[in-house]
Amino acid sequence: MITLCGFAVSNYYNIVKMALLEKAALFSEELVKTASREESVLSCSPLAKIPFIRTPQGGLCESQAILEFIEATYPQPALLPSDPYAAAKVREMITFINLHLELVARELYSQAFFGGTVSEATQARVRKHLEKNIVGFKRLAKFSPYVVGDTFTLADCVAFNNLPLIAMASRAIYGEDLLLAAGVDTKPYIKLIGERSSAQKVVADRKAATAKP
User: Fold this and answer.
1) Which of 30, 170, 202, 209 is 20 to 30 Å from 50 at the Cα level?
2) Do 98 and 52 sit in the same domain of this protein?
3) Is there a contact between 154 and 80 (Cβ–Cβ < 8 Å)?
4) Residue 36 half-sphere exposure toward CB, CA atoms < 13 A
5) Are residues 66 and 90 in the same domain?
6) CA-CA distance, 111 to 118, in Å (whole number)?
7) What is the pTM of this model?
8) How far apart are CA 85 and CA 81, in angstroms?
9) In the prediction, which pLDDT does 179 show?
10) Distance of alpha carbon 198 from alpha carbon 149, whole angstroms
11) In what order do the strands lie in the sheet with 58-61?
12) Domain boundary among 52, 73, 94
């Protein structure tokens, strides 16, 4: 059985968790914070990043690799298309959201969510990159009704857990949702995905974790 390690506030943890829930896979959860120096953590995640998983074969880190492992281990229901090009488009969307949207917006999180301060220079640089990259995302995203087409895929696990963060962070820092400002209204999409039992479980557990003292 898989053990998912990390914590329920992490968007990348929740991406993996949502995929496991969609697969109806048997898994347990282990609370692990970032920057642990425990050997049991470092042996699975050498940079002490979360999430990572423990499997009968050993540890595995990096969310993209974990998603691929889950898909191969639990092929049904399929969250990657069987057609190679269609599957590549799902992977393309995952990489684009993670690398060109979430990782860029992450520089704002300290001030947007945690009471820190982000310099005006950093804010300006991030805004420039986000505005450019959101235009690119708009070209790729289908929302018909899912992010890459008419079928729920791993890309939706990524989009559901990352797009709201990008919207909230930009609204907190710049006073506007940069996705919406570029013509990408994610609310109907998030509402649609939020009706899935996997999404409801992820959201409920995140709220419970956030509420803990």
Assistant:
1) 170
2) no
3) yes
4) 21
5) no
6) 6
7) 0.96
8) 9
9) 98
10) 19
11) 27-31, 2-6, 52-55, 58-61
12) 73
CATH of the domain at 61: 3.40.30.10
Task: Transcribe 27-88 into DSSP letters.
Answer: EEEEE--TT---HHHHTT-TT--S-EEEETTEEEESHHHHHHHHHHHS-SS-SS-SSHHHHH
Cα gap 138→140, rounded to integer Å: 5
Q: What is the mean pLDDT of each run of 10 residues along the chain (213 residues)?
A: 96 98 97 93 96 97 97 97 98 98 98 96 98 98 98 98 98 98 97 98 96 70
User: 78 lies in a domain?
Assistant: no
Parallel/antiparallel/unpaired status of strands 52-55 and 58-61: antiparallel
Under 8 Å CB-to-CB from 9, ≥6 apart: which residues?
Answer: 206, 209, 210
How far is CA 17 from its chain centroid?
Answer: 10
Length of the chain: 213
Which is it for strands 27-31 and 2-6: parallel, antiparallel or unpaired?
parallel
Q: How many domains does the chain have?
A: 2
Q: Is 11 helix (H, G, I), strand (E, B) or coil?
A: helix
47 and 116 in a single domain? The answer is no
Residues 137 and 198 in one domain: yes
- Residue 102 DSSP label: I
Residue 190 sits in which domain range? 84-211
3-state secondary structure 87-100: HHHHHHHHHHHHHH
Are 56 and 99 in a shared domain? no
Question: Do 65 and 105 fall into the same domain?
Answer: no
